[in-house]
Amino acid sequence: MEKNLQKAMNEQIRNELYSAYLYLSMSVYCEEKNLPGIAKWMRLQAKEEVGHAMKFFDFMVDVGAKIELLEIDKPPSNFSSVTDIFEKTLEHEKKVTGMINNLVSLAQKANDNAAMVMLQWFVNEQVEEEKTALQILETLKMINEQGPDLVMLDTELGKRE
Ligand code: FEO
Q: Is there an atom of ligand 1 within 6 Å of 43 CB?
């Protein structure tokens, strides 16, 4: 694998695992706020992020690229509200979309068709990730994060499998 692409993919394994860590931290916040449904949603989101990291890991194994596991930063834990965590989720996913776009550019420059095909999955996934975070954020703003409506949203998000 071309050097710059390999470096960015190794960083992306770390970035996806950091995403998992970030969402786990948000899950802790929701548990503390007695919102078990949103806490579960965030826990599943974290699991999905580990899956994303493993997709990069498996691809790199398959093509014989050199994997280097990098240090993962401590995630923030100072959230001020559920709206705040979804604002940060959306902001984070937009950042990840930028990382995926950068990987696509590197794969194009390296003429690495296999990487380009693999990355297409992530391009589509990021559209979904941003859409979901935005939808939940809009709902939270609509209900002003209040009483029975928040409990209903918690129940709804807790149905995630
Ligand atoms: Fe792996 Fe939420 O993007």
A: no
